[in-house]
Amino acid sequence: MSDDKFSAYLSPQQLIEIDACTRCGECLQFCPIQDVTGRPSISPPEKIRVFREFIRATEGLKASLFGSKVIDKQLLEDFTKAVFECTTCGACGQHCTVGIFTQRLWPVLRKEMVRRGIGPIGEQAKMPDAIATHGNPYNKPASERFYPWMPEGIEIVERAHLAYYAGCTGAYSAQPMVRGDVMVLSALGEPFTMLSAKEEVCCGFPLFISGQHDMLGGLVKRLVDAYLAKGVKTLICSCPCCLNIMTKDWPIYYGKPIPFNIRHITQHVAEAIKAGSLRLSEGLQERIIYHDPCYLSRGVGVIEEPRFILRSIPGIKLIEFQRYGKESRCCGAGGAARKVFQENANAMGRQTIDEAVKKQADRLILSCPACYAQVNEAMKGHPNKIVITDIMELLSYRIMVK
User: Fold this and answer.
1) Alpha-carbon distance 192 to 122, whole Å?
2) Cα distance between residue 12 and residue 1, in whole Å
3) How far apart are CA 78 and CA 100, in angstroms?
4) DSSP character at residue 328
5) CA nearest neighbour of 332 among 159, 133, 108, 89
6) Cβ partners under 8 Å of residue 196, min gap 6
7) Which of 113, 128, 176, 219 yields a CA-CA distance of 20 to 30 A from 208?
C-alpha cells in the first residue's frame, strides 16, 4: 500500500466507522477533553472529519483519477496534537449514535501518524527506548520494580498455576495498590508466582496506545513464554490497561491464543469472597465512592465485581458518582496523554475529587494504578481533599483475615 494512503492500519469496520460519523455532537457532552478545554477543533467528530478528508484526498475517487493530494504539514501536525491530546477513554464511543468504537479507533489513528513520522508527542516518544533499556516506560531501574513496596513475609513460589503481574505504573507510581494486591493474594492461601524484577517487563500498552507498535511482538512473546515456563494457568493483574491489552491484543501479537486465563484481581477476589476463602471481619463505618476506570468498565466490562467486594465490607455505605459503570468519567490519566498534557489531566482528576467531596464521601476508592497516581497528583494544591485508597489496599490493611 502506498505511503500516501491514510487507511493502512484501519480495519474494514473502522473504515465504515470513519465514514459513519454524522457529526451529531451527542458525544461532546461526555468527552473529558471538551469538559476541560472546550475546544471543538479537537472534538471526536472533528478528528474523524479531518481524518476522513485525509483519506479522500489520498485515496478517494478524485485521487484515483487525478492523483493524490499533498496534505499540508501544519494540518497534519494539528491533527496529530488533537488525536494525542485525547485520553482514549472511550466515553464518546459509548454514547455514539452510530456505534463508533472510538476506544479502539483513536490508537489506530495515532499509529498512522507515527508511521508518518509526525507522532508521538514529547515524552511519549521516549517510551520505546525506556522500555528497551529498563523494561518500563518510566525509565526506572528494573532492580527497583518490586522495591520498596513488596511486603516482608509474602511467599512467592517458583512455579504455580496462579501468577500475579504487578505492571509498571503500579510498581513505580501506585505502590500502595500493588502492595495490597500481593497481601490479598497471600491471604487467599493459594500458592502464586511472579516473574523476577528483570523478567517482568512492560505489558506493551503504553506503546500500543501511543501508536508505537514495533516492539510489541517481542514483549508479548517474552512475557507469555516466561509465564508458561512457570506452569501458569491463570494470570492476575490489577491494572485495567494491562488487562485490556493482554486480553484483546496479546493473542494478535503472540500469533495464537494465549494458553492461560487472564483476569482482573477484583474478579478473582470476588469469587474468593463468595466461596468463603476470604472472610471479612472488621468493618469500616464510612461513606465510600468508587470510581470506574475507563479501561476496566468500558474496556473489558468489569463493573460489578469491585462493587460486590466493597458491599461485602461491614458498615460501608457505597455511593455512586453521577456517571458510573460504562458511563464513568475519565480521571485524566488515560491514553498516555498525561505525559504531555498534564494540565488537562489534573483538571479531570479534580473533577473526580470535587464530585466525591460534594457527595460527602469519606473515601474515594480506585482500582487502577494510573487513576491512583493521577488523582493523587491532581489533589496537590487543590482545596478539596479526600482520602484516596485502592480497593485491594482497603482490604489488605483494614478488613482482611487469613
Assistant:
1) 39
2) 15
3) 23
4) P
5) 89
6) none
7) 176
Q: Residues with Cβ < 8 Å from 73, sequence gap 6 or more?
A: none
Burial class, 257, CB count within 10 angstroms (exposed 0-12 / middle 13-18 / buried 19+): exposed
Q: C-alpha grid cell for residue 337?
A: 496523554
**pTM exceeding the 0.85 threshold for the entire prediction:** yes
Residue 388, Cβ neighbours under 10 Å: how many? 21
Contacts of residue 128, Cβ cutoff 8 Å, sequence gap at least 6? 207, 212, 214, 215
Residue 57: pLDDT band by 50, 70, 90 thresholds? Answer: confident
SS3 210: coil
With bands split at pLDDT 50, 70 and 90, how would you rate the model's confidence at 100? Answer: very high
Nearest to 82, CA basis, from 339, 298, 341:
341
Q: Which three cell numbers stand for residue 212?
A: 508505537
Contact 6, 116 (CB under 8 A): no
pLDDT in tens, 254-296: 999 999 999 999 999 999 999 988 877 778 899 999 999 999 9
- Helix H segments across 150-284? 168-173, 175-188, 205-209, 216-229, 240-248, 250-254, 265-275
Note the pLDDT of residue 61: 63
What single-letter DSSP state applies at residue 221? H
DSSP three-state, residue 248 = helix
Measured CA to CA, the distance from residue 135 to residue 147 in angstroms comes to 15
Sequence-distant (≥ 6) Cβ neighbours of residue 114 within 8 angstroms = 120, 210, 211, 212
Domains (range + CATH), the chain: 12-119 (1.10.1060), 123-269 (no CATH), 280-401 (3.40.50.11810)
Interatomic CA distance for residues 179 and 249, integer angstroms: 27
SS3 193: strand
Q: Are the beta carbons of 33 and 85 closer than 8 angstroms?
A: yes
Which residue has 511472579 as its cell numbers?
Answer: 194
Q: Which of 31, 121, 141, 131 is nearest to 78 (CA)?
A: 121
What gap in Å lies between CA 83 and CA 243, rounded to an integer?
Answer: 23
Task: Assess contact for 386 and 360: CB atoms under 8 A.
Answer: no
The DSSP bridge pattern shows strands 234-237 and 261-264 to be parallel
Cell triple for residue 259?
Answer: 494458553
Whole-angstrom distance, CA of residue 385 vs CA of residue 293: 20
